[in-house]
């Protein structure tokens, strides 16, 4: 009875304030529960199946890491590649989370991370009562945008994994990472983060033997994650698992106009085409107006 009432109240609320696709901002059908429109959902599913240019595994099964991160911990998980392609759904979700404090968006990203974490066989040895922590955002950015996206997603991930959420690190004033080179990023991150007071005692006492799930929304050079993981490791953390929604690969290793897929007896990298890979376009409006699209069919009925 209570579930029915809640479902009807949610439907009524959606009719008053129609939901929007988390990736492209187009209005959604209030009767649907999917936070992505059909076009973005199909793109997102395709992106999850793209192969890592280094290990040739789907991104959700990939454990490839920058060398500086691997030196601290070999365990990692990410959902997809964070590329410069404007039509990428993974990229759109990450950028939206940086700019907007949308409950549905943080909940969706946490659910995707939780589902992927549960499917990874190489994580089976980790205890269920891990600690979930995150890489904090600069205070200036939080004040400007009104959200610390890593914190919000990590909190919801902890609930889904039935783990304890803890804040372990603080962000000191530093330069913006995206404007720096790889070497400058490492130097900047080394002085930009610090362990919270008394956290070292907790890691050796109350949290002894626990696995820390360290989350950040995106990994580019790996400098920030490596510095934060090193701080936690030196403070006494037993083991660390890197979690991120997106990861950027070095341009020299990632083929620029190719989509990698497993093909028996054929080269893995082929230009996108029928039967091999589908080019993910960003213009949802154009696709929806094309013959045979979901919206066109709905209007014709």
Defining key terms:
single chain; two-stranded antiparallel sheet; Rossmann fold; disordered C terminus; five-stranded parallel beta sheet; alpha/beta
- Shape field: globular
Structural class: alpha/beta
Strand line-up across the major sheet = 1-7-6-2-3
Element pattern in H and E? HHHEHHEHHEEHEHEHEEEHH
Poorly predicted spans: 251-282, 289-301
How far apart, in Å, are the first and last alpha carbons? Answer: 34 Å
Radius of gyration: 21 Å
Strand content: 5-15%
Stated plainly, the CATH topology of the domain at 58-247 is called Rossmann fold
Mean pLDDT: 77
- The CATH class of the domain at 58-247 is identified as Alpha Beta
The total count of strands amounts to 9
- Helix count equals 12
Which sheet architecture does the biggest sheet show?
Answer: 5 strands, parallel
How much helicity do the residues have?
25-40%
CATH architecture of the domain at 58-247: 3-Layer(aba) Sandwich
Brief account:
By secondary structure, the protein is of the alpha/beta class. Helix content is 40%, strand content 14%.
Write the layout of secondary structure elements.
Layout lengths: L1 H15 L21 H12 L17 H4 L4 E7 L7 H11 L3 H17 L11 E4 L4 H7 L3 H13 L2 E2 L3 E3 L10 H9 L2 E3 L3 H6 L6 E9 L3 H12 L4 E9 L10 E3 L8 E3 L12 H6 L4 H7 L1
Parallel strand pairs: 1-7, 2-3, 2-6, 6-7
Antiparallel strand pairs: 4-5, 8-9
């Amino acid at each position: 009875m209570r579930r029915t009432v809640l479902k009807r109240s949610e439907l009524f609320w959606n009719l008053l304030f129609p939901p929007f696709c988390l990736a492209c901002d187009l209005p959604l059908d209030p009767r649907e529960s999917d936070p992505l429109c059909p076009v973005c959902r199909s793109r997102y599913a395709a992106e999850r199946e793209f192969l890592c240019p280094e290990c040739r595994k789907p991104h959700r099964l990939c454990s490839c890491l920058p060398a500086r991160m691997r030196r601290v911990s070999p365990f990692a998980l990410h959902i997809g590649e964070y590329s410069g392609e404007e039509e990428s759904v993974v990229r759109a979700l990450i950028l939206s989370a940086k700019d907007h404090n949308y409950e549905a968006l943080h909940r969706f990203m946490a659910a995707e991370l939780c589902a992927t974490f549960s499917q990874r066989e190489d994580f089976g040895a980790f205890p269920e009562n891990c600690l979930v922590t995150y890489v904090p955002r600069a205070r200036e950015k939080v004040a400007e945008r009104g959200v610390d996206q890593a914190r919000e997603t990590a909190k919801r991930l902890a609930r889904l994994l039935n783990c304890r959420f803890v804040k372990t690190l603080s962000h000191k004033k530093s330069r913006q990472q995206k404007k720096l080179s790889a070497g400058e990023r490492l130097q900047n991150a080394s002085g930009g983060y610090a362990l919270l007071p008394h956290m070292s005692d907790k890691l050796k006492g109350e949290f002894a033997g626990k696995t820390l799930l360290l989350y950040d929304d995106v990994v580019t050079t790996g400098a920030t994650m490596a510095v934060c993981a090193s701080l936690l490791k030196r403070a006494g953390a037993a083991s660390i698992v890197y979690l991120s929604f997106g990861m950027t690969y070095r341009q020299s290793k990632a083929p620029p106009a190719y989509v990698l897929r497993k093909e028996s007896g054929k080269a893995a990298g082929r230009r996108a085409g029928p039967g091999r890979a589908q080019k993910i376009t960003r213009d949802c409006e154009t696709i929806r107006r094309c013959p045979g699209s979901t919206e066109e069919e709905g209007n014709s009925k």
